[in-house]
Design a protein that fits this description.
Keywords: Membrane, Transmembrane, Transmembrane helix. By secondary structure, the protein is an all-alpha fold. Helices cover about 85% and strands about 0% of the residues.
């Protein structure tokens, strides 16, 4: 679990949600807001997958 929490890609994806949260609170609710949430979810999933692949590569090397 620590490998996910301290990875730079995951931290970046999580902190980028701040702007989306603010847009959800203050902005209009239209298709662009939904698209922002979908793109954030994809970027978070890609960051987690990158950490998982990196861990698998390290396990294979040992």
């Amino acid at each position: 679990m620590r490998k996910y929490l301290f990875n730079g890609a995951v931290i970046g994806a999580v902190t980028s949600s701040w702007g989306i949260i603010q847009a959800t609170r203050n902005g209009p609710r239209d298709w662009r807001l939904a698209l922002m949430w979908v793109s954030w979810g994809i970027s978070l999933a890609l960051a987690v997958a990158a950490v998982r692949d990196e861990a698998k590569e390290r396990a294979l090397e040992q």
